[in-house]
Design a protein that fits this description.
Among the domains are: about 170 residues, Leucine-rich Repeat Variant (Alpha Horseshoe), CATH 1.25.10; about 190 residues, Alpha Horseshoe (Leucine-rich Repeat Variant). About 60% of the residues lie in helices and about 5% in strands. A 4-stranded antiparallel beta sheet has the order 3-6-5-4, with no helix packed on it. A two-stranded antiparallel ribbon has the order 1-2. Helix 6 runs antiparallel to helix 7, helix 7 runs parallel beside helix 10 and helix 10 packs parallel to helix 13. The protein is elongated, with a radius of gyration of 31 Å. Keywords: Cell cycle, Cell division. It is found in: Midbody. InterPro entries: ARM-like, ARM-type_fold, Ataxin-10/CTR86_families, Ataxin-10_domain.
């Protein structure tokens, strides 16, 4: 294949070669001279385009040049597939540096015609293929392309080109290179990736870059978060939610990363939690700072549903107090005027409320309940903050807070477990009329006087002679069969699923329940 051959003949030869390299055997037997010829075509074509740009005059056969470039890269792309030998030969010939130079050159051409787009797409596909499973090629691409190539191509107007660029970046990244993104000049690459995901939600490569690489570096997440707009922060938090919700086993190193994320997010929540009160005004229903606060709470709830992160967050300074105070402020705001924090129960069941703050109080109660799980210090702290009466005051069915009564049941269970002080407080509140007895009854609890003490216990009507009863409520609740055991009473409250809606299953424990489950994820 001589470089001096007519363009049409060269195109035909390149197309035939690209088709041939779709098969494994021709790839494995390809000689180095083939790739030398392709390199020569790319070098000559690149020089011609470069000279034309320098002279600021039109290139009459630009279309032919672009066609040649596309077919060259199709050959190289196909020849790399599952063939380390060809990857090695191409790298040693300098095809990676030639390709990166040519991509930058093509990017500078102002005419965004289809032939140019195709040439760019094929060139990036080649870089992705030569890097696949080949550390030496990844090193070479990183030296030639980072950060300049990624800074320019990740903002290109063509979605496919951006996608292929993300593929190359993902393939080349490792833990050391992720840390290079911390450099102020390189951080923009990470910003571009997140923006690609935000604008192209079906972009698998940008999703993988964030979840498999960027989120594994807490320092990078913190630096990135500071540079993001509120909408972009919401996107990042949603991706963190995906990662935190992954129930697959993780290493101790990954656990340490999550703990550091938890610290940062708890700090952010404590700093910005007051912003949610802006949502009491109809005009501020889309306040972005408030929406970030809501998403922060969602992630913290999910984190406290994981035992390894729970213990750390239970000891995080001020988080529990912030959750209780925010619940108090939103609850008070809902009582002072009619707004999204006002408890309502007027829906037919066919309507849906689309307000972003729907469920916010439910999630606050969920977080409080999680933070008090088997933690005497936090149980007592909620007592001191007068948070128990606040939770009891949120036991009514509320269309603005789905399942709030169920989360309240869960929180009260965790607050009273092996805590006589909190049990006695609820009993005294009911006796004095400060606690709604119907709310306690909905929880399946009743107050009994035994000697000189008031005892909080499971109501008799929940316990049948067959040691099992199902009491349905009028709320739907999807659940995991979590067991909430009142060990002192030898009674369990189980969340169970039924087509008719939420149900509580109360049963005697024989022998007493030893379930460790106390967190509903």
């Amino acid at each position: 294949m001589a470089a001096a051959a007519l363009p049409a003949a060269r195109l035909d030869n390149l197309r035939a070669l690209a088709a041939l390299f779709r098969e494994a055997q021709p790839r494995e037997t390809a000689e180095e001279s083939v790739f030398r010829d392709i390199l020569e075509i790319l070098t000559c074509t690149s020089s011609a385009i470069e000279q034309t740009c320098k002279d600021s005059c039109g290139l009459a056969d630009l279309d032919t040049c672009l066609l040649l470039i596309s077919e060259c890269f199709r050959c190289l792309r196909n020849a790399c597939v599952e063939c380390a030998k060809n990857q090695h030969v191409m790298r040693n010939l300098g095809l990676i540096s030639t390709s990166v130079h040519l991509i930058k050159l093509l990017h500078g051409i102002q005419i965004k015609e289809e032939l140019l787009l195709t040439a760019l797409r094929c060139s990036l596909q080649f870089l992705g293929n030569i890097a696949a499973g080949n550390g030496d090629s990844q090193n070479s691409i990183w030296k030639c392309a980072f950060p300049d190539l990624f800074l320019t191509i990740l903002t290109y107007s063509d979605e496919k080109i951006v996608t292929y660029c993300c593929m190359v970046l993902f393939t080349c990244l490792n833990s050391e290179r992720v840390r290079e993104l911390l450099d102020p000049g390189n951080l923009t690459v990470a910003l571009h990736v997140l923006r690609v995901y935000k604008e192209q939600l079906d972009s698998e490569w940008s999703f993988l870059i964030v979840t498999e690489h960027l989120l594994k570096c807490p320092e990078l997440v913190k630096a990135l978060y500071a540079k993001l707009s509120n909408q972009e922060r919401i996107t990042l938090l949603e991706l963190m939610m995906v990662k935190v919700s992954d129930k697959n086993s993780v290493t101790s190193e990954e656990m340490n990363v999550f703990v550091r994320h938890a610290d940062f997010l708890a700090d952010c929540f404590q700093e910005k939690c007051g912003a949610v009160l802006k949502l009491t005004a109809a005009a501020d229903v889309e306040d972005e700072e408030a929406l970030v606060t809501i998403r922060l709470l969602d992630v913290l709830c999910e984190m406290t549903s994981n035992n390894s992160q729970l213990e750390h967050l239970q000891a995080f300074p001020g988080l529990l107090e912030t959750a209780v105070d925010t619940l108090r402020l939103t609850h008070l705001a809902g009582k002072q005027a009619v707004n999204i924090f006002t408890a309502t129960h007027a829906m037919t069941g066919q309507e849906e409320i689309s307000h972003p703050a729907v469920g916010f109080k439910s999630h606050l109660i969920r977080l409080i309940g999680n933070l008090c799980y088997k933690n005497k210090e936090n149980q007592d702290k909620v007592y001191e903050l007068d948070g128990i009466s606040l939770i009891l005051d949120n036991c009514s069915i509320d269309d603005n807070n789905p399942f709030v009564s169920q989360w309240a049941i869960y929180a009260i269970r965790n607050l009273t477990e092996q805590n006589e002080q909190n049990q006695a407080l609820i009993a005294q509140m009911e006796q004095k009329g400060l606690a709604d007895s119907s709310a306690l009854e909905r929880m399946g609890l009743e107050i009994q006087q035994r000697d000189d003490k008031l005892i909080l216990r499971l109501h008799d009507k929940y316990i049948k002679t067959k040691a099992e009863a199902v009491v349905a409520t009028d709320a739907a609740f999807l659940c995991t069969g979590a067991c909430l055991c009142f060990g002192d009473l030898g009674v369990c409250l189980n969340f169970i699923c039924s087509f008719g809606g939420f149900a509580l299953e109360a049963k005697k424990c024989y022998p007493p329940c030893t379930s460790k489950t106390g967190i509903i994820a």
